[in-house]
Design brief:
With 191 residues, this protein is of the alpha+beta class. The chain has a domain of 126 residues: OB fold (Dihydrolipoamide Acetyltransferase, E2P) (Beta Barrel), CATH 2.40.50. The chain is built from four helices and ten strands, in the order H-E-E-E-E-E-H-E-E-E-E-E-H-H. The protein has a five-stranded mixed sheet with strand order 8-1-2-10-9, with no helix packed on it. The longest helix has 14 residues.
């Protein structure tokens, strides 16, 4: 009687894009919320970007990289602002239109469009923005630039703004990406 050849386990079936999105959602829910970094504390700097008519400042501690808009696989049954998922050097990330999520106006996608990849623990998330302006150190802003209220800031942005600064007639808003990634509305992208 001949020995039977050992059977190899069957490879798992490929995941549907929506299943990958659900896995991403679970990862976000399991992460520990990032605490906001005070503008007075010493940090590496800020990434300045434009979102509609607003200038946002992201902490460089949260930014993993800036990439040209990757090829996106659309996911059916999700909100308009969740553009889909993309493969970024073998890592699957979600790509969201930040302006559309926050203020309900889609960002026009141009050949020069870029995504800011923000990091939360070991997970990365892509955010489409209107324009990446460059680096800004907080030294560009003194105490005289700090605004005491957020009354001038669009309502959809206010929950994520830790500080508003006014310099040469332009508002600069320190944006808390940790609050964004902990926002239930952002985490529940299905329609």
């Amino acid at each position: 009687m001949a020995d039977a050849a050992p059977s190899t386990p069957a490879a798992p079936p490929p995941l549907h894009p929506f299943d990958i999105l659900l896995q991403l959602d679970q990862r976000v829910r399991q992460r520990v919320p990032v605490t906001a970094v005070s503008a007075q504390s010493e940090i590496r700097g800020r990434l300045a970007l434009r979102l509609g008519s607003w200038n946002l400042l992201f902490s460089m501690d949260d930014v993993a990289e800036i990439v040209p808009m990757p090829r996106i696989t659309r996911v059916p049954g999700v909100k308009r602002w969740l553009l889909g998922i993309a493969n970024l050097r073998g890592k699957v990330i979600s790509i969201s239109d930040l302006r559309d999520f926050l203020i309900g106006r889609p960002t026009p996608q141009l050949p020069s469009s870029q995504a800011v990849v923000i990091r939360s623990g070991q997970w990365d998330y892509g955010l489409l923005v209107d324009e990446v302006i460059g680096m800004r150190g907080m030294r560009h802003f003194g105490p005289q630039h700090r605004q005491t209220t957020l009354d001038e800031v669009e309502a959809g942005l206010r929950p994520y703004v830790t500080e508003a600064l006014l310099n040469d007639g332009q508002y600069w808003l320190a944006f808390d990406t940790g609050k964004l990634l902990a926002e239930p509305r952002f985490l529940h992208a299905s329609q």
